[in-house]
Amino acid sequence: MESDAHPEDDRHWSLESLNKVYQQGYMAGLTGQPSSRHGHSAEVLAAAWEAGWDDGHEQQLRQQKSA
């Protein structure tokens, strides 16, 4: 077992970490931050962040339309 494995390695993620990253992406999308700011190297975490960003951005657009 590698003791110096990067915490964002694709082999080391949990449902909790995916949810946390999704929520971070959601808030970024909701507040209008660019989608390129996720900063995750692991594909699974990057995908979770991007999914959250997409949902948050969509919510932001809906709120702007109804305002």
UniProtKB/TrEMBL annotation:
It comes from Pseudomonas borbori. It comes from the Bacteria. Coiled coil: none annotated. Pfam families: RMF (PF04957). NCBIfam families: PRK14563.1. Keywords: Cytoplasm, Translation regulation. One of its GO terms (biological process) is regulation of translation. This is Ribosome modulation factor. The keyword Calcium does not apply.
